[in-house]
Amino acid sequence: MKKAPQLNQLRELITSLDNELLTLLAKRRLLSIEVARSKESDIRPIRDTTREKELLARLVQQGRDQGLDAHYVLSLYHTIIEDSVLNQQAYLQSQANPDNRKHRTSVAYLGARGSYSYLAASRYCQRRQVEMQDIGCANFDEIANAVESGHADYGFLPIENTSSGSINEVFDLLQHTNLAIVGETTIDVGHCLLAKSGSKLEDIKTLYAHPQPISQCSRYLAHNGHYKLQYCSSSAEAMEKVQHGDHTVAAIGSAEGGALYELESIETGLANQKVNRTRFIVVARKAIDVPEQVPAKTTLIMATGQKPGALVDTLLVLKAHNINMSKLESRPITGTPWEEMFYLDVDANIASANMQRALKELERIARFIKVLGCYASETVKPTRLEHGQLLIEPDSSKVAKQQARKLDARHTRQFKPSGTEVTLGQTVISEQHFASLAQMPIEWFNDSFTAHAMALKEAGFQGVIITNNDSNAIDEVKLSKLCKQLAQAGLEAILAIEQTQELSILQEYASALLIPGKQMFNKSLLSTLGSSSIPVLLERNTMASEDEWLASAELFLQAGNQQLILCESGVRNFNHPEALAVDLTSLVNLRAQSHLPVIVNLSYSRDNREALALAASKLGASGIVLDALDDIETSQTLLPELYRLQQ
Ligand SMILES: C=C(O[C@@H]1C=C(C(=O)O)C=C[C@H]1O)C(=O)O
């Protein structure tokens, strides 16, 4: 193998670039505080989405000119702008509440240093440039007592999580305290397996964790049933146990928290959901004022009585005053069975005229109503660009696109009227041969996979696409075991390829290779695989137009290999930025323009996968891809139905 070119020098260059990037980011942050000062004197709103749109459109264009794709530039800048907006809010908030301005503040939170609550609290204080004196508590009541008694200035209470939902205990506690909500903060919760330095994954027998992380990682734990679970009162307690334990124990916690206990993360990404976030509320003895330039939230609790339609009447009051409700929860009222207390978060400042009017009307119809607090909303919705602004073509694709339009382009029906038949091992995929594939990341492979592979085969799948989210090199031992088990179950192995160098290893095990969407513009990968003889699935990039996708297919076909399948996996959806929407219109267009088989990958879709699968099959798809874990039950009835439709 060729020696890596002067790795150390290259790394030094990267390190110095990273230093410059950080210096620039810090300078940008300082400037945004200056902007907040000017908005303070002009009384202008913090958020200016028109300015953000202009800025993002320009950056996407400039990024493209330098070879950076739009999604990359947008996600970086969404993070930068979120930080900028939150810092400006924190600045104005502190100006509006001079009594609360302190250099040092005491904060009560669940657990001890390193717990998720601790991380949320320390980030909140850091943004406000106050030194945190931390008071770890054993439970939520203790947190409330610490604040009520004056022992702590603030209490941090987790209120909801994207995987496990609302935290009922906290809602129940809010019914009985006199504390005011003065803030909210949301943190990303990255669950890892944390162990003492030198511990090996295969030696771990016992896991310590708080019940919340256990429920948020239920899928990982179900796949690794050999661990003995020990429940703890907080993640910090779990980490402390591991710090004093041997090499057979591990804790579930954040890498950042683990570092405080000298623990290393030996497995990452344990949570069921990729986006795993927890929202905390901040409580204090006294309510605060929220400046009118800052987007505010107000939390109310209310009992409406059992009259039919009472809750609807309440909601109509909010609607009549044009107030958006962002959350509604109900909890039983202790001591009065069958009655419920409602918790409402509304997007409004309690000091605003319309909120005051709505409140007066609500007071008339509710049996009980109390404002728990008004505080700055920390939800900074990313500003979206219009479709047209995003689809500015990269110059590099223009030539290929013109080529694609030529009548003799190889992917066209004019070039080849009959549909292409692609053979992957024992499986044929074509206009006449419909295939069902499952998809899973290689990380999910474990020793009990044989049974799962058999179940996939029994459900009617013909092959499995193995993706590799890990940017590290391929683990060949794992790959060979996995492919052996797939072969034993009679399933084709379709392996995702990220770099040309991986071809020699992957083609030894694979019936076909998948060029993932993010590599769709990778010309060297396209031409290398185009020069090979292995069948290939070309996935559409989530931001690519049909023409760009076909231009990549053309580049591949021109190199010689004609065994190509197009794979539609969904495009960015501006309603749900984190989800993908399957583009069935493109399926229809491609079927008309090209002889290449098209398969539709539904495993990233949030929509009704069964309905989409049936629609895709009726619109001429040559196959579908479902999630190897989530969709196994659905597939037992869906796949026979799809095969029946094909006959
Ligand atoms: C910095 C400003 O405030 C906010 C943050 C922005 C940014 O960080 O670029 C842009 C617009 C505003 O939503 C501004 O108004 O310029």
**Helix fraction bin:** 40-55%
Please state the structural category: alpha/beta
What is the third-level CATH name, the topology of the largest domain? TIM Barrel
CATH class designation of the largest domain: Alpha Beta
Catalytic activity: prephenate + H(+) = 3-phenylpyruvate + CO2 + H2O
GO molecular function: chorismate mutase activity; prephenate dehydratase activity; transferase activity
GO cellular component, one term: cytoplasm
Domain Prephenate dehydratase: 106-285
What does this structure look like?
With 647 residues, this protein is α/β, with parallel strands linked by helices. It folds into 5 domains: 44-96; 103-188 and 276-288, D-Maltodextrin-Binding Protein, domain 2; 192-267, 3-Layer(aba) Sandwich (D-Maltodextrin-Binding Protein, domain 2), CATH 3.40.190; 289-380, Alpha-Beta Plaits, CATH 3.30.70.260; 413-545 and 566-646, Aldolase class I (TIM Barrel, Alpha-Beta Barrel), CATH 3.20.20. It contains 22 helices and 27 strands. The strands form 6 sheets. An 8-stranded parallel barrel has the order 18-19-20-21-22-23-26-27, surrounded by 7 helices. Strands 1, 2, 3, 4, 5 and 11 form a 6-stranded mixed sheet that branches. Helix 19 (546-558) links the parallel strand 22 (536-539) and strand 23. Helix 11 runs antiparallel to helix 12. Residues 392-396 have low confidence and may be disordered. Ligand ISJ is lined by residues 32, 35, 47-48, 51-52, 55, 81, 84-85, 88.
